[in-house]
Fold this protein.
Amino acid sequence: MSLLEIQDLIIEVGRAGAPAQVVAGLNLCVERGSTTVLVGESGSGKSMSALGIVRLLPRAARIKGGAVLLEGQDLLRISEAAMCDVRGARIGFVFQEPQDALNPVMRVGDQIGEVLTRHRGLRGLARRTRVVELLEAVGIPEAGQRLNGYPHQFSGGMKQRVMLAIALAGEPDLLIADAPTTALDVSTQAQILTLLRSEQQQRGMGMLFITHDLAVAHQVADTLAVMQAGRLVEIGSHADIFERPTHPYTQHLLRVSPRIQPDLAPPPLPVEAEPLLIARGLCVRFPGRRGLFGRIITQVTAVDNVDLIVHGGETVAIVGESGSGKTTLGRGLLRLLQVDAGSVNFGGREFFELDRKALRQARRDIQVVFQDPFSSMNPRLTVREIIEEGMTAQGLGGSRQGREQRVARLLEQVGLEAASIARFPHEFSGGQRQRICIARALAVEPKLLVCDEPTSALDVSVQAQILTLLRTLQQEMGLAYLFITHNLGVVAQIAHRVVVMHQGRIVESGPTQTVLFKPTHPYTQSLLAAVPRLP
Amino acid sequence: MVKPVLLPTDVAFLSSLLLVGLYFWAVRRDLLMRERWRTVLATPTGGAAALILCLYVAVAGLDCLRVEINGETKSLLDYLVSPLREHVETTYSAPFAAYGYAREVIPGASGAARQDYPRLRYGARHLAQPSRQMHADVLRRGMAGAGLGLLFLGGLLALVNRLRGRPLAGMFTPLTESTWRLQWLTAASICLALGWVICLAPYYHVLGTDKVGNDVLYLTLKSIRTGLVLGVVSSFITLPLAVIFGIPAGYFGGWIDDLVQYLYTTFSSVPGVLLIASAALSLDLLLQQHASAFPSLLARADMKLLALCLVLGLTGWTGLCRLLRADVMKLRVAEFVTAARALGTPPLKILLQHLLPNTFHLILITTVLDFSGLVLAEAVLTYVDIGVDPSMESWGNMINGARLELAREPAVWWSLLAAFCGMLGLVLAANLFADAMRDAFDPKLRGATSPSSS
């Protein structure tokens, strides 16, 4: 008998009149001591399946049919009280966002202890001892003191370790990890994956691991199940899926997943290219702790003395982990936030010395595309109004008719149908929205486009399409890109040159081939070593 | 001589209604807004509350259209309910009474005076022997009223069915259908109530009479205008203040924010009742000094009402202002605002095109919630004699008058109950409507009820 057996699980969302099946008949087994990875893009129903197993679905969703057998006992047919004894004690759960999953006003020791009291009946000193053991097991140093800390005193990776300690506290037979490393940096991700894997093997637990990232799946999986639109399309062993995928969707996913391969990167531009943007000695500081009367006591230096050159028609990638100052650098260059020192020469003009009016005009040449395709457009405007905004502000496009023609042309350029013009952003998918954002930026005919993580909120297949679009636009219009990202796989596909940032400073820069395949700085080397790779 | 009369509060109230109408006209093509308003009306409580609010607004609107005939100013409502207005007794009488509340000295036929309960001048006058005939008469007229109400309802249903192109056969299905049932049941109750009032009110004082013999139903109907004017006009005074101060404070920050914060902290620290009391007293003085400018009692009372709206409006904007400021502070770092700045969009346009529409749900919900607070404030302020003029019909004045009547034996309970019910209906409907609106408009709540992405 398998540890967990899911039979024909059906989950519906939406109103009773017009239900939509997000999980349409899932069949899956998780064996003791092995890891099953559920892979799929957003909307494939993988998270819903995981929540359905422990009966923690959001209110709008409901289980319509099927069975979830944990050692032969159907979890869908037992009472809620009995289910409370299953959650935490027999099934541990690690969520995607450790920030949201921990109670911010409760000491982490108590959050772990809660489970020990509920499921193991431990109290007092015995409970405390066990908490320390658990924290040590998940690799938190000085566990004796740290258990008195609050979640905000822990970093993202540390919080995820605490989450894991909570999940392990009840000594579960099955661990469900719902994309536990998506919110983390690559080096932290590597540590957490190693930790999960070793805990799973030591304790002989079954693990159901959910992810959208095939490279991560490659690292942890014994068995892989690929989901698409609520259906399981292929299931097989690690070797089966990665070496002999049979279903076209699996093959497609493997093909579009970014890889760090030397033959993909575009060659560096000829040296004669004219510099478009020259930044010298940029510094951005944020006020840290404030004292009485708002006096600034400490400062955080987000960008520390950065020099940067971007040539016309060139893609420069800025790579770094969260907190490295790469986004701040991008906003600083755009003069969207106050820069404390340094100068930016853009196309022969000193960008930071322009007065307010001249700056508004100069903004035409340097545009930005953001990460989140959901918050980067005003939900109350139509696509036409969104794309027209820059033209109106810059006085381009002439008459109303002229502007409308231009909007239509831009939509065609970014690969959207002309009928989109009168629709609202919420009617589009993430990838389509990102296309609209690109069209909005292109409407003012910029020379440089700052792309701040433009693909990290998108599925891999959509990501590949957006990257192709960006490359095509560069060839057609001679655009330069400043591509800010944490994803080295994306960098390998698009950048001519790479700049690696760490703690506000540039630690290494050079042609993509050199930086990615012959890195010299130890930080770059460790970063590259941590990236999960596909064969 | 017939001459239309428009008092200042009439103008303010009717133009507020016009603004609301203009808003709906402006968003009629906006699919998103249409969908949200439809959701509000489709929510059972929201739709029912909207119907009741419409009834109140209609009564108040009729009461705002006045004409002067032979030196006497009357509103359309006065003409519609003229039997109620004209049937004035000498003093108190209970609901459906044929005899007065207190014993009076009645000259007998033989010249010998006796003390007894007098027959009312108008209540149940058509009955020769009220004690024997009354029950049957009330029942008969009640049935007729119900019949009339059902006729209204049938007409309404037939009209809707025709507009929807549905067969006449299934005419009564809306009443049993599950989705719009409560809305239709509310409409049915309104129709029935109308039918009863039309059939019974000319012959009986259905809610009794007050100290000077005025029909309490008439007073309650007239009070609707006072309450609504106060709530609506004050809300429309708070709105621009809150928007003009709150949104720029949140967006620009810096000294503008400091200034606005200083302003609203100061305003909300002043005890509101004190400010209103001082304003009411100085207004009284002002009116006395310029008595010639306000020839009639009506004009004076109206001026006082307008002043009260102004004071309540000027002190009431701080709550919404604070909410708007906080919301805009969150929105100003949203990527679409940053993108607009990167495109070189001028700040004023960012405020109007990006920030105002995205805080609109907040403005709507808060305004409707505050509205009910203002209606209640009228009653409280009038009770302590700093509210509307004593000559103006209002729920506050009715309650104020009923204060001592409750202590009488037997108690005069009907004016208090009528004022209470009138106010409860309005405030409850406004609150339920605000609730339904919040469910439909608030993006945070919408995230919780709609299917989340997996």
